[in-house]
Amino acid sequence: MPDTLYDVAILGSGPGGLQAAIHASRKKAKVLMLGRIDNSSLFWAHVENYCCQIMISGEEILKTGRMQAESFGAEFRDEDVLAIEPDGKLFSIKLESGDMIKAKAIILATGSSRNKLKVPGEKDLLGKGVSYCVDCDAGFYRNEVVAVAGCRSAAAGGAVALTNFASEVHLYCKELDIAKGLREQLDTTGVIVREGIQITEIKGKNAVESVLLDDGSTQSVAGVFIELGAKGVLELTAMLGVQLDENMKYIEADKKQQTNVTGVYAAGDICGPPLQMAKAVGEGCVAGIEAATYAKKLELD
């Protein structure tokens, strides 16, 4: 598939991203929304504190929002982003299917939560071999044996990336749920896929030394990368140079939801508390309008 150019690409399928898609599309921008709605924390929630709604399921809100955005012309691809980088005045985005797309503007609306493995040793060894960001920490594990935990694109893509540094990469997951192209990359890069086996404990005194697996075996490793879901705020901002707050947790954006990088906007939980749908929708509205306006005015060489 050749590169396809969009005015606005939105990463994340939660309420902030959906509202951005609705408003950007209504301004006649060519919009692509990326991600799976069941990755949104709202998908599993029941909402009782949103204006004009007594009680409604998050799943219903998200599905309705998608239909609204589609009615205005927004396109959707239910897959995650593996890489994103500046490309002149544009941005190049690599999808888990292997396809590449380009966009004039980006809206980051992926949420802020970092899913935990919730096993003994994870918390105690954080920063001592336990990491939630392959793009940030892969370089520390040159010629080492490492483990990756996760079943989705972030884990598979991270495992592939780690083969450029580590001597051996083990990917542990209950059942892989990734695109065919990404599975082919796992096979060709030599990642040891341990499907059906999961990490139950991370062991080590002052640093990670091994992982205990649910089949009773132990694997010696120097690092454990926990990648449960899609690319998070740390990975995406590291690729783009987007400024985070002093705690390296949330994206800094102005009142137009513009980040420090021209053409990159952010909305929703990724911008910090309160982590509420009402805030995400409001910021998504602003980000969608501003990103579409910027993209429509951008002159390409």
From TrEMBL:
Residues 6-284 form the FAD/NAD(P)-binding domain. Gene3D superfamilies: FAD/NAD(P)-binding domain. It holds the Pfam family Pyr_redox_2. InterPro entries: FAD/NAD-bd_sf (IPR036188), FAD/NAD-binding_dom (IPR023753), Ferredoxin-NADP_redctase_2 (IPR050097). SUPFAM superfamilies: FAD/NAD(P)-binding domain (SSF51905). Keywords: Flavoprotein, Oxidoreductase. This is Thioredoxin-disulfide reductase. It comes from Pseudodesulfovibrio sediminis. The lineage of its organism: Bacteria, Pseudomonadati, Thermodesulfobacteriota, Desulfovibrionia, Desulfovibrionales.
